[in-house]
Amino acid sequence: MKILFEIYHSTSEDVLYLPILNTNKKTFQLRTETLWFLKQNSINDSHLIFLNDNDNIDLLKLKMEKKLQLTLVDHNYLRNDLNENVVEIIDHHSPDQNILLKELSPPSLLTFKVISRNSTKSRSEVFRKAFMFSKSLSFTLVFFKQIHGKAPACSITSVSSFEAPLRELCEALKTSEKLDVWPFFAKVSNVNPSSITIEKVGSCCTLIAEKLLSDKQFQFTEEIANLLRGPILFDTINFSTAAGKTTEKDCNIFSKLKSIMATSTDDKQLFNDLNEQAADISAMSIEDLLQKDLKMSMGPNIRIAVSSLPMNNTCEEFINKLKTMKDIESFLQKNDNADAVIILSVKTNDKNEPSRQLGLFVKKFEHFNKLYKYIQQEEHGLELQERSIPINQARLKLFNQKNAQASRKQILPIIEQYVKNFEASNE
């Protein structure tokens, strides 16, 4: 994805664009499906630049020399000072609410992108209500962009203390039917709101492809179309309706990519090949399985890892391999000495219908009960049903997740809210 995006930008003669992976080479080796797909397209890891392994690119030095601008793809925040150099964001994940309210302070700009399947009239009504609501809370609401056929956006600048009113405004907007409201902020001096694309689609490659397709100067090749095709198939679980990830935009963009490819392609076979590669854990340890697809949610009082297991490897199978908790505890210690890990798994049948499980391990028993009860709350909509496990360990739990459409994209904000509100004194 990053490679394609930088190809798009490489037409600039004044700026050198480099695709940099925000990981290290060792961790990247766990991405078996990615390695396989890149190899199929004549790309190996020697062609890639890894942020944590490359001593030849000193981003901090470039930052100090005011020569650094960053575009984030498939994520929306860096947990370091380099975040100040972000000038563009293309992502399909909900922004970290914990970061949002922690970092936002006047005079900053808060940007809302409202993704709606309703008519323009309906969206306008929502914005009218939002304006009246914000006005009563000493907010100034300014519309800066509304493009036909695309999500309108607005910016909100506070003139008073606004953390509590901000929460209320977010909730007021969310009550509108068929609306997904994702708040995000950018310091006025850094990110132009028009350079923020955060949209709820099945694959971030859909947004990249849309950007490339809309540029009349960009010359699309069959090779580039194929590089985008694979991730979209994999991310949407081959456009499975039951998985609930696919949007109309994913389908439309994929159709356009297919039209560029002169040779016929077997989408089902490619998806099955990617699935098979992703499920291959023959060379992976317990720690590798947890590390392969990891997100961290970190607060002042608690840190929680959220690990997605490789496709078609279930939490139940993972737990059955455990004899002690030493491997999990070692994994937590190596990842910011985290206090707990949420383990997610998805398995598909012949019809690409997903079934999900959730595992929970908490390092300290005094932290266990609160998190154990929290994730089962009905308001989260995960529909968890606890299962028995073959190991006698009170800090480890296994659940069947009946809401099969709730992926990590939906679960992570739930965990982030818990982390933000967690107070050690309550335990």
From TrEMBL:
Q: Name one GO molecular function term.
A: exopolyphosphatase activity
Q: InterPro entries under this entry?
A: DHH_sf, DHHA2, DHHA2_dom_sf
User: Which intervals hold domain DHHA2?
Assistant: 271-419
One cellular component term (GO) for this entry is: cytoplasm
Q: Name one Pfam family in it.
A: DHHA2
State the superkingdom.
Eukaryota
Q: Which family does it belong to?
A: Belongs to the PPase class C family. Prune subfamily.
Can you name this protein?
DHHA2 domain-containing protein
Q: Which organism is it from?
A: Didymodactylos carnosus
